[in-house]
Amino acid sequence: MADHRYPIVGAPSSENAEALQTVAQGYAGAADEDDRGNLQDYLRILYRRRWPTVIVFAAVLTLMMLFSYRQVSLYEGRAQLLIEVEQPKVLNFQPATEQQNFLDFYPTQYKVLQSRSLARRTIDALDLWNNSVLVGPRQAAPSLSPMRYAKGLVSRILPSRPATTEGAAVGQTAAPSGEDAVMETPQQAAVIDAFLGRLTISPVKESRLVDLRFRSTDPVLSATVPNGLAKAYIEQTMEFKFDTSREASNWLGQRLTEQRKKVEASELALQQYREQSGSVALDDRQNIVVQKLADLNAAVTKAKTERLAKEASYQQLEKAQNDPQALDTLPVVLGNVFVQQLRSELATLQRQEAQMAEKLGEKHVDMIKIRSAIQSMEAKLQTEVGKVVQSMRNDYQASVAQEQSLVAALEAQKRDALGLNRKGIEYGVLQREAESNRQLYNNVLQRAKETGVSESLRASTVRIVDYAQVPRSPIFPDRYQDSVIALCTALVCALGTALLFEYLDSRIKTPDEIKSRLGLPYLGLLPSLPKKSAERTALLISNNVPATFAEAFRHVRTSVLFSLAEDGAKSLLMTSTGPGEGKTMVSANLAVALAQAGNRVLLIDADMRRPKLHFAFEECQE
Question: In principle, which of 1, 286, 296, 558 could form an S-S bond with 410, CB 3.0–4.6 Å?
Answer without folding.
Answer: 296
